[in-house]
Structures are given as structure tokens and as C-alpha cells.
Design brief:
By secondary structure, the protein is an alpha/beta fold. It is built from nine helices and five strands. It has one domain: Beta-carbonic Anhydrase, Chain A. Helices cover 49% and strands 12% of the residues. Strand 4 and strand 5 form a beta hairpin.
Length: 218
């Protein structure tokens, strides 16, 4: 009898431990952000957490899905980044559902559709911060440096190569490509006006696909 009681206790303890392990708490989002700098500081902090932990503790719950379905989305930042499968923007910034308005194009280039999406995120959704996020080992940048793109892909590499000086290396090219996309965004009269008023801010950054860390430009 004692043997069976002991086995039962072991099983109950194991079930309890496994339940606790699966019940990780999601991070708490600040009640509000005062300005773009406070958002940037927060995202830097969240990226550090992601790079160390290698997982996302953002709120992906059923309740969050229901809340955003009923009450809409209120992202605090727009992220323009590459379509590269190694650059998962929400995970990089440890973000949950409804936090980031993410626009992805190969090479994080800005065309009319992407620019319209940025305008929507800033003007309609009220995002105070726009981040253009390039990354290391970018295939689009590499193709722009070395040629060889065909078809519609050439429209992407042509956009990148046009902003690159002769002889620049991949690291410099990645940064210049981000800066070119920022310049394209600032061609929007709407965004330029909001930036002038201090209602939104645009910054550039590079994501290191090996370390998981984001380096923001000065």
C-alpha cells in the first residue's frame, strides 16, 4: 500500500512541476510611453532580454487575441525590416500581439506600398517611433554589391546599389541601405511634418543574426 502511495505522490509532484513550467509569466507592458525615446529605451531593453534568453516572453495569449480583435490594435512602434526568415521582428524585441506594426520587404527597401504602410502606422495608428532595421548577412545587400539579380528582384537591388559608393564593404553597405530607406521615408510630407512636430521619430539599426542583438545608429 505504501509503495502505491509513494508512486502516486511522485506522479502528482511531477504533474505539478510540469504545470508550473508551462505557466511562464508574460512581460508586463508599460502603461504608456511618454515619447519616442522612452519607446526606444524599452525596445533596447527587450532586445537584450531576447538575445540572452533566446525566446519571446511577449503576450501571445488567447485573451490578448480576443482583446485586440474587439478593441483594435495600438502599436507603439513601426518596424521596417527585411523579409529574411532569420529576422523575426516581434521576437527580436520580445514583443507580443498588438505591440509592433511590422513592414517587411526584401532588403528593407522602401517603395510606394511600404511608404504607405509606414504612413498608416504613424498617422492612423499613432506609433511614435519608426525603426528601419537592417541586418547582417543580408542577401539583398550582397546581391547589390555583387550583381546578378534578374526580373523584379532587380528593382530591389537597383534601389540598394544606387546608394552605395564604389568599394564599400558589406557592413558599410548594410548601414547605408538603412539610411537610404530612412531618407525615402522622410520624403513623405506627412511623416516629415509629424517628425518636425516631434510626434514621431525615425531611427536606423542593424540586427546581428548571430548574436541576436540590435545596434542602433547614433
Amino acid at each position: 500500500m505504501r509503495k502505491w502511495i509513494s508512486i502516486l505522490l511522485v506522479c502528482l509532484i511531477a504533474v505539478g512541476l510540469s504545470g508550473c513550467a508551462g505557466a511562464e509569466k508574460t512581460k508586463e507592458l508599460p502603461a504608456n510611453f511618454a515619447d519616442a525615446q522612452s519607446i526606444l529605451d524599452y525596445l533596447e531593453q527587450q532586445n537584450e532580454i531576447f538575445a540572452k534568453a533566446g525566446k519571446n516572453s511577449g503576450d501571445l495569449s488567447k485573451d490578448k487575441r480576443a482583446d485586440t480583435a474587439e478593441n483594435g490594435q495600438h502599436p507603439y512602434a513601426v518596424i521596417v525590416t527585411c523579409s529574411d526568415s532569420r529576422v523575426p521582428a516581434e521576437h527580436i524585441f520580445n514583443a507580443g500581439i498588438g505591440e509592433l506594426f511590422v513592414i517587411r520587404t526584401a532588403g528593407n527597401v522602401i517603395g510606394d506600398h511600404a511608404l504607405g504602410s509606414v504612413e498608416y502606422g504613424v498617422e492612423h495608428l499613432g506609433a511614435k517611433l519608426v525603426i528601419v532595421l537592417g541586418h547582417t548577412h543580408c542577401g539583398a545587400v550582397d546581391a547589390a554589391l555583387n550583381g546578378g539579380a534578374h526580373g523584379a528582384i532587380a528593382t530591389i537591388t537597383d534601389e540598394i546599389s544606387a546608394c552605395l559608393p564604389a568599394g564599400c564593404d558589406a557592413r558599410e553597405a548594410e548601414k547605408l541601405n538603412v539610411e537610404n530607406s530612412i531618407s525615402r521615408i522622410m520624403e513623405s510630407e506627412m511623416i516629415a511634418e509629424l517628425a518636425k512636430k516631434g510626434e514621431t521619430c525615425i531611427v536606423g539599426a542593424i540586427y546581428n543574426i548571430e548574436s541576436g542583438t540590435v545596434e542602433f545608429f547614433d
